[in-house]
Specification:
The chain has 103 residues and is mainly beta. The protein contains no helices and 8 strands. It has strands at residues 17-22, 45-51, 55-56, 62-63, 72-75, 81-85, 88-94, 98-102. Pfam families: Cpn10.
Length: 103
C-alpha cells in the first residue's frame, strides 16, 4: 500500500467543517511554576487554516460559514478530531463547535 503525504495545503474540509491550527499550550502558570507535559491543558484557541464549502440546506443550496481563513477562534474543549501534520497540531471541527471569533 502506498503512503500518502499530507500537508495543510492538501487538506480540504467538507461541508461545514473547518481546519484549525492549535495555539501553543501554556508553558507555566501565572505564578511562574513550569508545567510538565502531563499537566498542560489542551488549548481551546486556534487559527483557521481551511474552511469547507458550507452546509447544504434542505433545498440543496450551500449555506456560507460565518468564519473564514485567518480568523482566530475559541472552540469547545473536547470538540473535533486531532490531526498532526508536519510537526504541527491541528483540529478538524464542525462550525457548530466554534464558540467565538477572537480579535
Amino acid at each position: 500500500m502506498a503512503a500518502i503525504s499530507l500537508s495543510v495545503s492538501t487538506v480540504k474540509p467538507l461541508g461545514d467543517r473547518v481546519f484549525v491550527k492549535v495555539s501553543a499550550a501554556e508553558e507555566q502558570t501565572a505564578g511562574g511554576i513550569i508545567l510538565p507535559d502531563a499537566a498542560k491543558e489542551k488549548p481551546q484557541v486556534g487559527e483557521i487554516t481551511a474552511v469547507g464549502p458550507g452546509k447544504r440546506g434542505d433545498d440543496g443550496s450551500r449555506q456560507a460559514l460565518d468564519v473564514k481563513e485567518g480568523d482566530k477562534v475559541l472552540y469547545s474543549k473536547y470538540a473535533g478530531t486531532d490531526v498532526k501534520l508536519g510537526g504541527e497540531e491541528y483540529v478538524l471541527l464542525s462550525e457548530k463547535d466554534i464558540l467565538a471569533i477572537v480579535n
